[in-house]
Amino acid sequence: MAFTLQSTDLRDGEKMPNAQVFNGMGYEGENLSPQLSWDNPPAGTKSFAITCYDPDAPTGSGWWHWGVANLPADLRSLPTGAGSGLPGLPAGSVQTRTDFGKAGYGGAAPPQGEHHRYQFTVFALDVATLEVDEQSSGAYLGFNLHFHTLGKAGLTVIYS
């Protein structure tokens, strides 16, 4: 069976709801991280990490909207808002710094008139913890994920 990622808030390939859109930069979204759940991780999984990345941002290097690591291997879901200060992140998990400059979920906020993709990915890792903290950049988190990923599952939504 395949490692999969689902959401009650997002639909793969469809428009991101206002609940997950940034509140600022000309947008009035709710800035809530989406509910996510995953099934069938690879054998040997010792922890999970989740990222949200916009490859279409006009930066030359995309835009990191969310990073959370050190999620326990027995976890299979996060509730809506867990990355936005609401309950739901397990003890010991770490949210890394986004390109908004702080840790925690930052929703969609593309330049007006642009169409962007938002890639949510859950990574199954071969280590219980990654050496990251709230000041670690998305690129640094991605670098660490590269060396410890057993498998990954994702979904992509759009916003313009």
UniProtKB/TrEMBL annotation:
Cite the source lineage. Bacteria, Pseudomonadati, Pseudomonadota, Gammaproteobacteria, Enterobacterales
CDD domains, sorted:
PEBP_bact_arch
Q: Which NCBIfam families match?
A: PRK10257.1, YbhB/YbcL family Raf kinase inhibitor-like protein
Q: One Pfam family name from the record?
A: PBP
Q: Which domain of life is it from?
A: Bacteria
InterPro entries, per the entry? PEBP, PEBP-like_sf, YbhB_YbcL/LppC-like
User: What name does the UniProt record give this protein?
Assistant: Kinase inhibitor
